[in-house]
Design goal:
It is a single chain. The protein is about 50% helix and about 5% strand. The longest helix is centred in the N-terminal third of the chain and has 21 residues. By secondary structure, the protein is an alpha+beta fold. The radius of gyration is 21 Å and the shape is elongated. Helix 5 crosses helix 6. It folds into three domains: about 150 residues, Cyclin A, domain 1; about 80 residues, Cyclin A, domain 1, CATH 1.10.472.10; about 70 residues, no CATH class. The chain contains 16 helices and six strands. Strand 4 and strand 5 form a beta hairpin. It has a four-stranded antiparallel sheet. Strands 1-2 form a two-stranded antiparallel sheet. Belongs to the cyclin family. It comes from Aphanomyces astaci. This is Cyclin-like domain-containing protein.
Length: about 350
């Protein structure tokens, strides 16, 4: 039996485009969570709230960017990790400018736009609370707690555990949390990680964990399909009025605007043995040894705490294009970062 159309689909938006906007909003939540130094459980709750919100509201009425801002603000309070309104506003304002190719100046409280962005945040937070019935109990049970128990029960390797943890984190970009129980998603992540790493699971482990094999297979397939979607840098809102239209203030901040660029999604690679934790993208990539540098694209590195600190230290923002040839170095928190305009990569070396 086919699922009923969502409010966005009822207004003419295709399922593919709706998934694209939701994926984009979840990417914003993940990036903002890193900049706000929030634990992964807050980001999982925020993305669950986002999917519940768009199950009842349309993207034509509430754009993905502001919905992401309201959801992460509400989730931080729900998980007892609150962040100040001005901090959330500053982070999303900077993300908007960077993704649109505008300036990176701060949004001062004296700026009229600061009051506007604050009103957006409060308005969306209130609307999300209304749509979820002022109850967030259903959004705080995540697959992570089941995953930790199952990993120990099945005696999985550290690499398999970390890979499954990465799959669970990425699964929140889809609305799986609305259609499947948390323990089913955890089992699907373990199954997928075991196949990728060729780790043999005990015979009949699905029955031991009381999950249906067809459900596990279905969730695992959706997780794999997730990495076929390109990563979107910026999506224009579908609302009747574009709240992010470039104004004269934005033009003063940055004379040159960069065009939106889409990046292909990269599936998580098998990591080396590590402690299960919220792992930045840079830690998921393989390196020959611990002492060898990890070289990753600037746009991927910019999503990690290390990248934010390193790039800010060298005093340059590297996006898709740059003029001239410069090489800069900086050491932040025991991490040496080297960036070059000619190669468009950042070399990170642990000291």
């Amino acid at each position: 039996m086919a699922a009923p159309p969502t409010p966005s689909q009822a207004e003419g938006l295709s399922a593919t485009d709706e998934k694209r906007h939701r994926f984009y909003a979840c990417e914003l939540i993940q990036e903002a969570g890193i900049l706000l130094q929030l634990p992964q459980v807050v980001l999982a709750t925020a993305q669950s709230l986002l999917h519940r919100f768009y199950a009842r509201q349309s993207l034509f009425d509430f754009d993905a960017f502001r919905a992401a801002m309201g959801c992460i603000f509400l989730a931080s309070k729900a998980e007892e990790q609150p962040r100040r309104v001005k901090d959330v506003v500053q982070v999303f304002f900077r993300m908007r400018n960077r993704r649109m190719g505008l300036g990176l100046s701060l949004l001062m409280p004296s700026d009229p736009r600061f009051a506007t962005w604050t009103d957006w945040l409060v308005m969306v937070e209130r609307q999300v609370l209304i749509e979820v019935g002022f109850s967030i109990d259903g959004t705080t049970e995540h697959p992570h707690k089941f995953l930790l128990y199952y990993i120990k029960l099945l005696e999985c390797s550290d690499a398999c555990a970390q890979q499954a943890w990465n799959y669970v984190n990425d699964s929140f970009r889809l609305d799986l949390c609305l259609r499947y129980d948390a323990h089913v998603i955890a089992c699907a992540a373990i199954s997928l990680a075991a196949r990728v790493l060729q780790h043999v699971l005990p015979l009949g482990w699905e029955e031991l964990l009381e999950v249906d094999v067809p459900d596990v297979i279905s969730v695992a397939r959706e997780m794999l399909a997730l990495y076929e979607h390109p990563r979107v840098r910026w999506l224009e809102p579908l609302t009747e009025v574009n709240p992010f239209e470039v104004t004269r203030h934005d033009k003063v901040e940055a004379p040159t605007n960069l065009p939106p660029v889409e990046h292909p999604a990269v599936p998580p690679q098998p990591p080396p043995p590590a402690v299960i934790a919220r792992t930045p993208l840079v830690n998921r990539m393989q390196a020959p040894s611990y002492d060898d540098p990890i070289i990753v694209p600037v746009e991927a590195l910019a999503e990690t705490e290390i990248a934010v600190a390193a790039i800010d230290a060298v005093g340059a923002e590297h996006d898709e294009t740059s003029a001239g040839t410069t090489t800069t170095d900086a050491t932040v928190a025991g991490v040496e970062a080297k960036s070059s305009d000619t190669t468009h990569v950042v070399e990170v070396r642990r000291n």
